[in-house]
Amino acid sequence: MVDTPVTPAAKRGRPPKAKTLDTAANAVAVKAEPLKKAATEAASDAAAEVESAAKGLSAQIKPIKEQAEKAAKAAAEKLNAVDWKAHIDPIKEQAGKTAKSAAGVAKDKTGTAMQSLSKLIADTAATVDAKLGPQYGDYARQAAEQVAGAADSLDNKDVDQLMAEARDFVRKSPAVAIGAAAVVGFVLMRLAKGSDDKA
Fold this sequence. Notes:
Layout: H1 9-12, H2 19-81, H3 84-132, H4 134-156, H5 159-172, H6 174-198
Helix pairs in contact: 3-4, 5-6
């Protein structure tokens, strides 16, 4: 027999559907409905409480936020109102004077040290004459004269002239200036290391 929608299930050779399954599903749905409704109400209540708490916190935070914004604005206005150039110029001027004074003291000490070195070389020229010969003694005297001339030149110039000459020298021969700076740095490092070892 051909299966048609009008043909009863018993005649088609299939067992009839169990009505108990539909009944059980309806019973579960009926029992779940109150639970679903209670859960929805609980979630709605919880959301309302969270929203209420958030509004309360927002109300508490708002005046603090406004106060902080006012304080930040006032601080920014104070910073913008300060004439930094007027404060920095005297400090810059004082630093320049201090550096110039220190350079003057260093120049005087260097000149004195060079004069002493010149004297020492000239005094040892006679010993060099006796031990190595007059030719080497003449070299020592010439070296003493050169050092004395450099010391006199250093003493006769002020710090500004020396700085201008140093700038010109660096512009004309930067490689020599870098090499000289490296040698001076090395010597100063060795002197500092030697004084640390004694301490």
